[in-house]
Design a protein that fits this description.
single chain; Transferase(Phosphotransferase), domain 1; two-stranded antiparallel sheet
Length: about 250
C-alpha cells in the first residue's frame, strides 16, 4: 500500500491533467499489483517474457524481451515524470517503490509509486533514481533476452521522451517537456543516448506544427508476421517515416 503522501501527490498530478489523459496514469479494471523489483528475479522475468509469445508467437526470445521492455520502460516511469512535470515534485521510480499493474496475460498498462521521492523537487535526484532503476532492469532484461544492453538504453530514452511529450501535450507545454527530457537524459548520463525530436507541419486546412519523438530505438514488433513498423520507427525509409508522421500530425 502506498503512503498517504504518495496518494496525495498522484491525486494532485491527475488533477492537473485533463480527465481524458488519465489512462496512462490510473489503472482500470482489476490489475494485480506486482513490485517492479521483481525484474531482478530471473525466474519471474523469464515467465513475463514468455507470456509475450501469446501475442507474438512467431518471434524469438530476443524480440519478446525487447517488446516487454518497450512496454514496461514507458509504464514504470510515468508516475514519476508526470508528477514532476505537473507538480514539481516526483514520485519515486525506484524499483522497490514501483508497483506494476499486471494483467494475467502479462500485459502492463499502468504503474503506481508507493513513495514520494526524497529530493524529488530536484531534477538531479530524479535522474539519479531513474538511473538506479535502469541499471537494475536493463542488464536483467538483456540477460533474459540474450541481447545487448545498448539497444535497451535507447528504448529507455525513447520511453522517457514519449511519456514527457505526452504530459507536455496534455498541459500545452510541449517545449518545456522536451527541455526536461534533455536535462534528465544528460543527468542520467551514458550509455543513455540523447533524445531526438522532429516537428511536422500540418497540412491545410489545419495549421501549426506537431512535435514527435524521433525514435532511435526499435521495438522489433514488425518481425512478427502481419505487424507493421510504427510511424517513427528508425528502420523506416525517411520518405515513409515523413509520410506517416505527416498523417499523424494531421490528426494530432
Amino acid at each position: 500500500m502506498g503512503s498517504t503522501a504518495a496518494d496525495e501527490l498522484l491525486a494532485s498530478t491527475a488533477g492537473g491533467l485533463p480527465r481524458e489523459e488519465h489512462g496512462y496514469l490510473l489503472p482500470t479494471g482489476a490489475p494485480i499489483p506486482i513490485s517492479f523489483a521483481r525484474v531482478d528475479d530471473s525466474e519471474w522475468l523469464d515467465a513475463q517474457i514468455g507470456l509475450q509469445a501469446q501475442r507474438w508467437p512467431s518471434v524469438d526470445r530476443r524480440v519478446l524481451a525487447t517488446l516487454w521492455w518497450y512496454s514496461v520502460s514507458q509504464v514504470f516511469l510515468t508516475p514519476t515524470v508526470a508528477a514532476l512535470f505537473v507538480t514539481g515534485q516526483a514520485l519515486s521510480p525506484r524499483t522497490a517503490d514501483v508497483e506494476l499493474h499486471w494483467l494475467p496475460d502479462g500485459r502492463v498498462f499502468t504503474a503506481g509509486s508507493l513513495a514520494v521521492l526524497d529530493g524529488g523537487n530536484d531534477v538531479r535526484s530524479v535522474a539519479a533514481a531513474l538511473r538506479e532503476s535502469f541499471e537494475l532492469a536493463i542488464p536483467a532484461v538483456a540477460r533474459a533476452g540474450a541481447r545487448r544492453e545498448r539497444p535497451l538504453w535507447a528504448i529507455a530514452t525513447d520511453s522517457l521522451a514519449n511519456r514527457l511529450l505526452w504530459v507536455g501535450r496534455a498541459r500545452g507545454e510541449v517545449y518545456r517537456a522536451t527541455e526536461l527530457t534533455v536535462t534528465l537524459t544528460e543527468l542520467i548520463g551514458p550509455p543513455m543516448p540523447a533524445p531526438r525530436y522532429v516537428d511536422v507541419e500540418r497540412r491545410p486546412p489545419r495549421k501549426g506544427r506537431v512535435r514527435f519523438v524521433r525514435r532511435g530505438s526499435c521495438c522489433l514488433v514488425y518481425l512478427e508476421p502481419n505487424e507493421a513498423k510504427c510511424a517513427s520507427c528508425p528502420r523506416l525509409s525517411p520518405i515513409s517515416r515523413e509520410s506517416l508522421l505527416r498523417t499523424a500530425a494531421d490528426f494530432a
